[in-house]
Structures are given as structure tokens and as C-alpha cells.
């Protein structure tokens, strides 16, 4: 494997605000052979075309950030790594927001232990991400407006918290979360 394009993508998303197809991925290299296997972490991906020096695939449902690997006949890759016998790989990142064309502008990062004041003008949606959460943590929102929150799990499946007043939402341990917050004209404080 010499390259993977792109190295950031998403599985299929079917959320209330849109349907987004899985990211198409091209893997370049040599001598892929006919029994080549592509995996995103431990999930095998279908190969739509094998041209010997290029493999075409897409991000399968349920995958999360980790490694994309290619193994040839008789080979195997060690789970959670990019190494093994007749195996090559590289890191691959799942980004739930990128698939939307960043329709709500740039994501704002909120680190664990921090808070941010966010100004909303009219009814507006803004995109956020956390750093990697360690231990138990909550997203706490204080706002003069009722808010709706869409929280994505690490495989881009969304959970909606609709029309909430000052919600406290548990965040999963061990990875970065992405979420949207919709509010009316107000200044909202988001704390993790």
C-alpha cells in the first residue's frame, strides 16, 4: 500500500437533516492479487474494483477511527494495528461532519474541563467537537433559549435531544464526540 485517498471519511449517514453516502476510498499500491482483503479496523469492506495497483472501496457501516488495512492471500493483520503477515495499513479517521460539506461553518472544539460562550443570532445551528474524553463527562448547556442537540456516536449514528431546556448529556469515554446545537437568539454556555 503506497497511499489511501482520502484518509478521512464517513460511513453511510441517514439522519433527519440529510442522507450522506459512504466515502469512496482509493488505495494505491502494487501486486494486490485476486484474494485481497480490505478492512477498516476489524470490519471487512467490499472491494468495488481491483485494478492490480488500485483498490476501490467505501467506508462500511459501523466503523470508527482506527486503521485501514490491506492483506493479501494467506495474510492477516493484527487487530488495532497496521501490521501483520502480508499486511499493510495506515490510520483512517471518521468525521461525521465533513460529509455535510461543513454546512454549519467551522467546528468549534471544546476540551474536557472547558466551557465556551456561543452567540446565536436568530434560529441557528452550530457544529462542535470534543477532544478525546477520559472518564465520565457530560455536555452541559446553559441557555436562555430552548436547544436541540444532535450527538453523533463514533460511527456517525445520531441521537437527538429535541427542544431541551439547559440539558445535561452524557458523553462517551475514550473518543472525540461531534455534535450540533441549534438555538434561538441567545448566548449559550457549553461546558464539558
Automatic annotation (TrEMBL):
InterPro entries: Ig-like_fold (IPR013783), Ig_E-set (IPR014756). Residues 1-17 have a biased composition (Polar residues). This is IPT/TIG domain-containing protein. Residues 1-21 are annotated as: Disordered.
Amino acid at each position: 500500500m503506497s497511499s489511501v485517498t482520502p484518509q478521512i471519511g464517513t460511513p453511510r449517514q441517514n439522519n433527519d437533516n440529510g442522507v450522506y453516502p459512504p466515502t469512496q476510498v482509493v488505495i494505491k499500491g502494487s501486486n494486490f492479487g485476486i484474494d485481497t482483503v480490505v478492512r477498516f479496523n476489524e470490519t471487512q469492506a467490499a472491494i468495488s474494483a481491483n485494478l492490480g495497483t488500485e483498490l476501490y472501496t467505501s467506508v462500511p457501516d459501523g466503523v470508527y477511527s482506527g486503521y485501514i488495512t490491506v492483506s493479501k492471500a494467506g495474510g492477516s493483520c493484527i487487530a488495532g494495528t497496521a501490521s501483520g503477515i502480508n499486511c499493510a495499513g495506515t490510520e483512517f479517521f471518521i468525521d461525521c461532519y465533513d460529509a455535510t460539506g461543513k454546512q454549519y461553518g467551522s467546528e468549534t472544539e471544546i476540551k474536557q474541563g472547558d466551557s465556551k460562550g456561543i452567540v446565536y443570532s436568530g434560529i441557528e445551528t452550530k457544529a462542535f467537537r470534543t477532544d478525546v474524553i477520559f472518564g465520565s463527562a457530560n455536555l452541559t448547556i446553559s441557555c436562555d433559549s430552548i436547544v436541540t442537540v444532535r450527538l453523533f456516536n463514533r460511527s456517525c449514528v445520531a441521537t437527538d435531544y429535541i427542544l431541551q431546556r439547559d440539558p445535561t448529556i452524557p458523553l462517551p469515554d475514550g473518543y472525540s464526540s461531534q455534535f450540533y446545537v441549534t438555538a434561538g437568539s441567545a448566548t449559550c454556555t457549553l461546558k464539558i
